[in-house]
Amino acid sequence: MIKIMVVDDQSLMRDGLATILSLRNELEVVGTACDGQDAFEKAKRLIPDIILMDIRMPGTNGVDGTKLIREEMPEIKVLMLTTFKDSELIFEALEEGASGYLLKDMPTDTIVQAILTVHSGGVVLPPDVTAQVIKEMKHSQSMAAPLEGNPPAAPKETEDLTEREHDVLRQLGYGLSNKEIAEVLFITEGTVKNHVSNIISKLGLRDRTQAAIFAVRYGITTYDI
Fold it and tell me: Is the pTM for the entire model greater than 0.85?
């Protein structure tokens, strides 16, 4: 059973989601928290497998909360709950170690599937949502500079990637699992795993989430916007 913590400053959202998720046989909601600092303190005691974390909260927001948790308890995974208005914070959260994000109004089954994906080591970057997020970021005055206009030139380390590693990196940016990438590229899952390890090593990245962010940020993965 997967242990879950729900973090949101709005009690209706927090308690409602916790109640709905607790009805699922594969999940156990072990606690809730009202902001990132509260989540950090409770996580040390409750040790959830996955934390569903709102991004924009008074006090310690979801980005800073994710950073606190991932630095001290890297075994705990964080899945962000967002709105399109949070687009400028989404990539910050991913860069601090979040394993993906979902919109708050997505169906319960979608949220549960995302939890299962993250628990199995995957990354959740919904393609349609990511395309819209990038569009919002490009049109927002508060967008992060690296994503303004055309994608910035990729670091020279990408020149060390083989053609197949480029292909795998592109698919990582779509949030695909190793199995899904294997099906798309007609190679074995073990081969994909090796390519992912090589990509992370060559680019000096922390994990596959960082590789996915890299692919999107530098235009290796493209979205129709």
Answer: no
